[in-house]
Amino acid sequence: MKTGVYPGTFDPITLGHMDIIRRGAKLVDRLVIGVTTNPSKSPMFSVDERVAMVRREIEGIGGDVAVVTFDSLLMDFAEREGATVILRGLRAVADFEYEYQMAGMNQQLNDRIETVFLMADVSLQPIASRLVKEIALFGGNIAKFVTPAVAADVAARVQATGRKGA
Fold first, then answer.
1. CATH for 3-122, options being 3.10.180.10, 3.40.190.10, 3.40.50.620, 3.40.50.720
2. Is the predicted pLDDT of residue 92 greater than 90, yes or no?
3. HSE (side-chain half, CA atoms, 13 Å) at 39
């Protein structure tokens, strides 16, 4: 059984993430979506909130897809999950440069796990969680970038923090 890991912060999960999840689930027997923290990012949602959001969004996607948290090196997490593949989405050349470097470092840590890059659908390439949050914080419409349920989650968070238009 081939297991793949798709790691990310998913803060929030976007249509671009969903595209990679749908396509990635077809490439492996089991897909583990690893929700993690990133010390260089300021999350809008807690890890538990992001896990719940991702689980809600993948309902009905089909296949063997799990959502779990991790707070360790990606390669350690992938090995614990029994993964032979790490899936990464690419949007642009800047993504490639970063991801290429990370894949090389990960290969040095564990050469039994391959990194597979999936290009985001052309219509979804500009979407980034960071930009979705920024648009929402300034009162913009994020409906083209996330599902209606995620848009509602983000709007509620922006309203609760009182940062809209700040």
1. 3.40.50.620
2. no
3. 3
